Amino acid sequence: MLDLSIIIVNYKTPKLILNCLASIHTYTEGIDFEVIVVDNQSGDDSQAVILAQYPTVRWFDMGYNAGFARANNYGIKQAKARNVLLLNSDTLLTDNVLARCVGILDKQPDVAAVSVLQRGGGGQLRPNLYTTFGQMRRAFYILPAGAFFQNWLHRLIPDPQYSDPNQVEWLSGAFLMTRPSTIALAGGLDESFFMYGEDVEWGYRLGKHGRLLLLREASFIHLEYGSSDDNQQHVVTHINRFKPQIQVSQLLWVRKQYGVGAYLVLILHYLLMIPIVYAWKIAVNLRDRRLPWADLENQRAFTQQVGIFLRFFWKTLFNRPGFYKV
């Protein structure tokens, strides 16, 4: 039996996948693996380009842009190995990390899933990666900067404490290795998610069947946003920190994991923030002797984002199965 099935979802990223596969074949030793590519209706020459260089890749077409969860679930069903790895197309390996993770799952049956640290394209460790549910939830609240509000949020939404420094509450779907036997117990990725948030919700269910480990002494390169056309156009500010698709998915996760109350608190928070951010900016304009309505683009953008969240309000409130795609 194969040691590992590597599942890569493709959406118009053949060059990234070629680089990813080259790094896999360069550095992976001591295990037998297969590569499964699931295509989300790229509509380009991805299949021909990739199979020309790596003819052993098992290629599957979804027939539509199914997003991350559905495409990976399909790949998991095709897997022939005793371990599976969800791996983003925009990733590179720099050492034999796959064999190391397989060894962890083989030797520690109490571990449900394993991952490693992420580095950027320049090799630097990516800071501020969330590893607990509390870190994620605290980031949803738009509060004034400063220690007072951050400490208050920490008391309200604390993080768990583990004896093992490698143990976390969830692992990024960019690199997540687990067993089909564990997936059979926890269930696959929730297919209501289009992109983002599905790995957080999955971490909650996987964690019921064992520890989740993020190996601090191992890493991979995550270039990020290989198939995202709008990432560079998204300007992040204090109040506009969310890309709409990300936050729609994260709100769905909050509703699924923490219930109606936690979801309604967040929606109410965003609604109340609309007049607050306008009033704050108008006050700043008056202080600076400018027109009250000057430079309100940031506030308008926030209002538009809340409007997008509200498009999914009733569907999310009642946790209706569907396809939460912006």
Automatic annotation (TrEMBL):
Short name of any one Pfam family annotated for the protein: Glycos_transf_2
Keywords assigned: Membrane, Transferase, Transmembrane, Transmembrane helix
Domain Glycosyltransferase 2-like: 5-132
InterPro entries: Glyco_trans_2-like, Nucleotide-diphossugar_trans
Molecular-function GO term, any one: transferase activity
TM stretches of this protein: 260-280
CDD domains: GT_2_like_c
PANTHER family: RHAMNOSYLTRANSFERASE WBBL (PTHR43179:SF7)
Protein name per UniProt: Glycosyltransferase
Species the sequence originates in: Spirosoma endbachense
Taxonomic placement: Bacteria, Pseudomonadati, Bacteroidota, Cytophagia, Cytophagales
